[in-house]
Design goal:
Its EC number is 2.6.1.42. Acts on leucine, isoleucine and valine. It is an enzyme of class 2 (transferase). It catalyses: L-leucine + 2-oxoglutarate = 4-methyl-2-oxopentanoate + L-glutamate; L-isoleucine + 2-oxoglutarate = (S)-3-methyl-2-oxopentanoate + L-glutamate; L-valine + 2-oxoglutarate = 3-methyl-2-oxobutanoate + L-glutamate. By secondary structure, this protein is of the alpha+beta class. The chain has 2 domains: 7-124, D-amino Acid Aminotransferase, Chain A, domain 1 (2-Layer Sandwich), CATH 3.30.470; 132-292, D-amino Acid Aminotransferase, subunit A, domain 2 (D-amino Acid Aminotransferase, Chain A, domain 2), CATH 3.20.10. Helices cover 27% and strands 29% of the residues. It contains 8 helices and 17 strands. Strands 8, 9, 10, 11, 12, 13, 14, 15 and 16 form a 9-stranded mixed sheet that branches. Helix 2 (54-67) packs across helix 3 (76-89). It is globular and about 55 Å long. The protein starts with 6 loop residues before the first strand and ends with a strand. The mean pLDDT is 97. The structure holds 4'-deoxy-4'-aminopyridoxal-5'-phosphate (PMP). 4'-deoxy-4'-aminopyridoxal-5'-phosphate (PMP) binds at residues 38, 159, 167, 193, 196-198, 217, 219-222, 255-257.
Length: 306
């Protein structure tokens, strides 16, 4: 990732991709407190490029920082502009964008409250996160032996750097065993989310998804699916869900900025429904891609032209 052409927005200016470096004594590197976003821009039907739900992603970055009492030295407007600028200046069409804020290297030790807060935004092309085939056929998922964070251990409303080791452990475990992705249970034993995705179950034509009290991230794709489901007359229920409800569900899918809408065809060796992308998932996935690619003018306000 470090050795490529392009520019990265770093603390207010564009720097050469290869020069976007930080010191080894960076506080966040040692203690894991930092916040970030995952955003996507899509090439639009008219050939332009637009960032999907930029305002919501920037707002969540600032909310994450607020939770950790990190005062970002920029406004939301400045970070949104930086996000568009990295897409533009790197001449990207469809791409993934990574804003990140971290605590600097001024001082080490847990209590370094006066350290400088830094912000960077990078962007690069990134296709289907869980594979193009998975988008059509569905992926195979395994319940993790690692438990998702309790909301009082790490702050689950924040998209925080330190929340991700358990995601990595779970994903490692699942992929080592030949699965595509992991499903994490919350500390009470209910389904929480994927290692980097929210999850939905389809049962009798309704959508069910874990409520956020279990610690799942308040996903922006999840929220977009709520709106698209309402438009298609599909009821959405947020509640506690057990893993065996998925075993006997009709369909299931993951949502996320990286994962977009990825069907799940199997959990823990049990085929879900017909074992393929089901009709409700197909409908919502198509609706999602119509929206992000600017083919549905109703959602123009979700798209920020770069
Ligand atoms: N849960 C986790 C743990 C994630 O990392 C992500 C990706 N940001 C999501 C859910 C989905 O959130 P969003 O749709 O906002 O990308």
């Amino acid at each position: 990732m470090a050795d490529r052409d392009g520019v990265i927005w770093m603390d207010g200016k564009m720097v050469d991709w290869r020069d976007a470096k930080i010191h080894v004594l960076t506080h966040t590197l040692h203690y894991g407190m930092g916040v970030f976003e995952g955003v996507r821009a899509y090439q639009q039907a008219d050939g332009s490029t637009a960032v999907f739900r930029l305002k919501e992603h920037t707002r969540r970055l600032f909310n994450s920082a607020r939770i950790f009492q990190m005062n970002l030295p920029f406004t939301e407007e400045q970070i949104s502009e930086a996000t568009k600028a990295v897409v533009r200046e790197n001449k990207l069409e469809s791409c993934y964008i990574r804003p990140i804020a971290w605590i600097g290297s001024d001082k080490l030790g847990i209590g370094a409250r006066t350290n400088t807060i830094h912000v960077a935004v990078a962007a690069w092309p990134w296709g289907a996160y869980l594979g193009a085939e998975g988008m059509e056929r569905g992926i195979r998922v395994k319940t993790s032996s690692f438990t998702h964070h309790h909301p009082n251990v790490t702050m689950c409303k924040a998209k925080a750097v330190g929340n991700y080791p358990v995601s990595i452990l779970s994903n490692q475990e699942a992929t080592n065993e030949g699965y595509d992705e992991a499903m994490l249970m919350d500390p009470q034993g209910f389904v929480c989310q994927g290692s980097g995705e929210n999850v939905f179950l389809v049962k009798d034509g309704e959508l069910h998804t874990p409520d956020l009290a279990g610690g799942a991230l308040d996903g922006i794709t999840r929220n977009s699916i709520f709106t698209l489901a309402a438009e298609h007359g599909i009821k959405v229920v947020e509640r506690r869900i057990t893993r065996d409800e998925f075993y006997i569900g009709d369909e299931a899918f993951f949502t996320g900025t990286a994962a977009e809408v990825t069907p799940i065809r199997e959990l823990d060796g049990r085929t879900i429904g017909a074992g393929s992308r089901g009709p409700v998932t197909t409908k919502l996935q198509a609706a999602f891609f119509d929206v992000v690619n600017g083919r549905n003018p109703k959602y123009a306000e979700w798209l920020a032209k770069v």
